[in-house]
Specification:
Elements: H1 12-25, H2 27-36, H3 48-57, H4 62-75, H5 81-84, H6 89-95, H7 99-113, H8 127-135, H9 142-152, H10 164-173, H11 182-188, H12 196-210
Helix pairs in contact: 1-2, 2-12, 3-4, 3-7, 3-9, 8-9, 10-12
Amino acid sequence: MTQIPELELLTEESFSRGLMVLASIDNDLAQILETLGPPPIWSREPGFATLVWIILEQQVSLAAAKAVFTRLCGVVVTLTPENFLTLDDAQLKGIGFSRQKILYCRGLADAIATGQLDLSKLSKMDETAIRTQLKRLKGIGDWTVDIYLLMALQRADVFPKGDLGLAIALQKLKNLGTRPTPAQLETMTQHWRPWRAIAARLLWHYYLSNANSNKLMGV
């Protein structure tokens, strides 16, 4: 198992340092920092509950996903895979789950409950291994893995190239004629390495300052 270099994990110190580096190499990011101040670090607790929340955020507004997640936590006070699996289709649909997301979250819960997936081990794995582990599960694609890596595992060099908010923000920030595709985002952000997760937070900060937080996320 590959040991994670310290640089790849965000701390308050490395976050501040990364902001300074990004501001020195990209004038547009420097302008965001000067105008809006530092973005929130935006973190979530690693584990099953956070992955369920991220799955709920796929292709819907953040507000809608949070409402469903809040209702779920009201029904299942301790949100463990085992407790989640006690809910039937009618209960989950009543909470606000779509048929697809019932399938995805049950698959995740079952994989953990049966020992096929151990989320506690992910923190010590490299990004490629984490991506391989999680993407074996139906309904978990690159965007979901990226958000988990960025927010739950605090990896410093993750950029969710499938995120709509980031694409909109970069189009506006760089005054582009068209919204960049995920492949274009991947290319355009290479010079921000190894701090792309901080750049993503700056762009979300900018995006949220220009629009309501009730916006679509990626897939």
